[in-house]
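Reviewers of the previous submission asked for a worked example of the structure-prediction workflow described in the proposal, so we include one complete record here. The input consisted solely of the amino acid sequence. No template or homolog information was supplied to the procedure at any stage.
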Amino acid sequence: IQSYVHPESQHIRPIRRCYQKLGRRRPRWTMHVRIQQRNGRKTLTTVQGLSSEYDLKKIVRACKKEFACNGTVVEHPEYGEVLQLQGDQRENICQWLTKSGLVKPEQLKVHG
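From that input alone, the workflow returned the following structure tokens.
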């Protein structure tokens, strides 16, 4: 997990400690995995809602290598930074994210 943490996000760690001291759970966030139809049988898998403390470019690079597909990080006006992977990678990305410890299975919401 440490290799995917953005170097500028070191200030987030004290926030976690505050929640632990207060005995509260961290705020839950949901990550959405969607599929979009392009032309013909071509599809795009989009991943929205990853924490901003992760370096998304490193995650895309690892996913491209693991799934043998192309991918990029795009800026969406409504959702912020979104991962885009070519092909139907919904199951692959969900398994990879939980296996690598970036998200918990209950935080994933798969659409489509």
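Confidence is low (pLDDT under 50) at residues 11-15. We consider this example representative of the routine output the project will generate in years two and three.
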